[in-house]
Amino acid sequence: MNGSYTAKSQLSNTLTYDDSPQAIISLSSSYDGNYDATSSLSTLAGSYVGAGKTTYNSDASTTYSITSTGQINGSRANGCTFTGRVPPPERQGV
Which residue ranges are recorded for the region named Disordered (predicted)? Predict the structure, then answer.
């Protein structure tokens, strides 16, 4: 693995496997200034779609929503449903 980074700017890495010269994985990313923003449940609130792992370690299409009070409600394509709660963000400087 070889890489570089610049704080609050960019990250770049290359992973080369010794046993397979064709296997090279590269990663490049840039800093998102939103990382420094103060978090809130109202900012997090919304609907999300993605893939989640099942107990059989396979991907399952997953949808969920988070309310401004932190309530999570979701379901997977296989019929499983789930609920939960996001705790409020910690206060800084208190």
Answer: 68-94
In tens digits, the chain (94 residues) has pLDDT values of 889 989 989 999 988 887 776 678 888 999 888 778 777 888 889 999 988 776 666 778 899 999 999 999 999 888 889 999 998 776 554 4
What is the DSSP code string of 36-88? GSPP-HHHH-EEEEEEEE-TTS-EEEEEEEE-TT-EEEEEETTS-EEEEEPPP
Q: Domain tally for the chain?
A: 2
Based on the domain organization, do 45 and 77 belong to the same domain? yes
Cα–Cα distance measured from residue 34 to residue 38, given in angstroms and rounded to the nearest whole number = 8
Domain that holds residue 26: 2-31
Give me 29's structure tokens. Answer: 């990313």
